[in-house]
Fold this protein.
Amino acid sequence: MQPHRLSMLRSAVPVFFLLVLFLVTYVESLSCYQCATTAKHHECKDDYGGFVNTSMGLTHKYDKNCTAANVNWTRCMILTAQGQAGVETVFHRGCHDGETFSILHDSPKFRGLPPNNQTTCGRIASSRELVCFTFCATDFCNGPQPPPPIPDPCSNTSASYAGDARCGATGLQGTVTLTSMLVCAGILLFALLL
Ligand SMILES: *[C@@H]1O[C@H](CO)[C@@H](O)[C@H](O)[C@H]1NC(C)=O
Ligand SMILES: *[C@@H]1O[C@H](CO)[C@@H](O)[C@H](O)[C@H]1NC(C)=O
Ligand SMILES: *[C@@H]1O[C@H](CO)[C@@H](O)[C@H](O)[C@H]1NC(C)=O
Ligand SMILES: *[C@@H]1O[C@H](CO)[C@@H](O)[C@H](O)[C@H]1NC(C)=O
Ligand SMILES: *[C@@H]1O[C@H](CO)[C@@H](O)[C@H](O)[C@H]1NC(C)=O
């Protein structure tokens, strides 16, 4: 009995350490959205449904395992660049280490930025482009804002009384019928009195 238990304990030790290792690696891995474009309108900017699907693992369209690509990539980022005329030239979602900036996108302002969702912009000395970085450090935190909800024209009670027939059509119809009935009755009464 005793040796059997001991051997069980012995075999449990490596399993335990493997589990700890697995948990540590799991926690330390970071996934970000990855895409880039130079176009004015592009799915990389506003494909909200596609990003949500990626974050749920339904597709891998925009998914980047930053940890697997580079252990130093511990944050997600959004990079935008504007030319001198104010025209956006680059839009990029991806991974970053917060320290390494290419010469095209480097400014003293970008040193030591915390991954707090705040956007920091700087004018690049060589190109005169205005480059902005937004950093964050949770899985798929560098997505687009959800599209604004489509306003419900019927949410405004005063709007439906103002004559929008799509809102409360039956109620409006009822009122119209009642009004026209009263008008008809009035005309009839008027005619009878004459
Ligand atoms: C997201 O996934 C759902 C379910 O698979 C699909 O119906 C929908 O078209 C996808 N949306 C986008 C924007 O890819
Ligand atoms: C990302 O890669 C790391 C290292 O290869 C791995 O441990 C981790 O499970 C991966 N994460 C996802 C979500 O695939
Ligand atoms: C990660 O950073 C360390 C220290 O700065 C550096 O020595 C190493 O080469 C980097 N690793 C990669 C894959 O870039
Ligand atoms: C940054 O934004 C992401 C996505 O909206 C959110 O999950 C995260 O908590 C935010 N982080 C901070 C530090 O505000
Ligand atoms: C509701 O009414 C207010 C005040 O009349 C107006 O400013 C607002 O735009 C209306 N909203 C809708 C959805 O019609």
The CA atoms of residues 121 and 159 lie 43 Å apart. Residues 49-50, 53, 58 surround 2-acetamido-2-deoxy-beta-D-glucopyranose (ligand 1) (CB under 6 Å). The radius of gyration is 31 Å. The beta strands are 31-33, 35-37, 63-65, 75-82, 88-96, 116-123, 130-136.
